């Protein structure tokens, strides 16, 4: 795997034990019990990644899947003290983006407060390329990815495709499971390669 795009702030970072996340924001996630079931499946695969030896987790600090993954990691620290959570904020005016989109600022602040390391990239959210740049940085500094995305055009699907090109181990959860009753986390619809 070619790691020529390593971020200087992550120099010496153990990419072989690093996993990143990509996934939909709240408006593309299912509601109610379906979201609870999806969150349980996400938790299951995060613990599975820990058992595989992943210790460093890069989150793009978005509301939705990034927040749910970070929240899970924070809750697992007592059982897995080796967890290192790295937040990668795509731009300097990210709080404005949260306000404009109606996302939860308390979620962002919780991630900022509890992350072990926080990177803030230059630029403004009004330039859409900042999100792609952040996603590429995370993929370039990881050897695995957990993606929660459906088919179709999205930043999450674009990130998953980039991770495939880079040869990362992949665990892709589909955001919507079969009609209830919802399957156990280990039986949630998933695509895996090297994971």
What is the topological layout?
Blueprint: E1 18-23, H1 32-52, E2 56-59, H2 65-76, E3 84-89, H3 94-101, H4 105-114, E4 117-120, H5 129-140, E5 144-148, H6 155-166, E6 169-173, E7 190-193
Parallel strand pairs: 1-2, 1-5, 2-3, 3-4, 5-6
Antiparallel strand pairs: 6-7
Helix content: 25-40%
* Low-pLDDT segments: none
Basic shape: globular
**Arithmetic mean pLDDT:** 92
Quickly give the structural class.
alpha/beta
Order of helices and strands: EHEHEHHEHEHEE
Strand order of the largest sheet: 4-3-2-1-5-6-7
Please report the total strand number as a whole number: 7
- The level 1 CATH classification is Alpha Beta
What's the domain count? Answer: 1
Rounded Rg: 15 Å
Instruction: Provide the β-strand percentage band.
Output: 15-25%
CATH architecture: 3-Layer(aba) Sandwich
The name of the CATH topology is Rossmann fold
Oligomeric nature of the chains: single chain
Number of helices: 6
Q: How far is it from the N-terminal to the C-terminal residue, by CA?
A: 16 Å
Q: Outline the biggest β-sheet.
A: 7 strands, mixed
Can you put this structure into words, describing what you see?
The chain is an alpha/beta fold and 195 residues long. It has a single domain (13-193), classed as Rossmann fold (3-Layer(aba) Sandwich). The protein contains six helices and seven strands; from the N terminus they run E-H-E-H-E-H-H-E-H-E-H-E-E. Strands 4-3-2-1-5-6-7 form a seven-stranded mixed β-sheet, with helices on both faces. The radius of gyration is 15 Å and the shape is globular. The model has no long low-confidence stretch (mean pLDDT 92).
